[in-house]
Specification:
single chain, mainly alpha, Histone, subunit A, elongated
Length: 65
């Protein structure tokens, strides 16, 4: 199940300059963004654990990107 709402993804695409967005395009971008977010979050969690912390920080996220 997807976590990101399609409407928010459509707004992102329109903000980037698109006049119209197909439902399939919004869904595809949502999947790509969720995959990237999951990879970054997992790496950030490993960085926090390696540092002896349970809390993921902004720095962990930026380093994981």
């Amino acid at each position: 199940m997807s976590e990101l709402p399609v409407a928010a993804i459509e707004r992102l695409i329109r903000k980037a300059g698109a006049e119209r967005v197909s439902p399939q395009a919004a869904s595809a971008l949502r999947d790509v963004l969720e995959d990237a977010a999951n990879r970054i979050a997992a790496k950030a969690a490993k960085l926090a654990k390696h540092a002896g912390r349970k809390t993921v920080t902004e720095e962990d996220i930026r380093l994981a990107d």
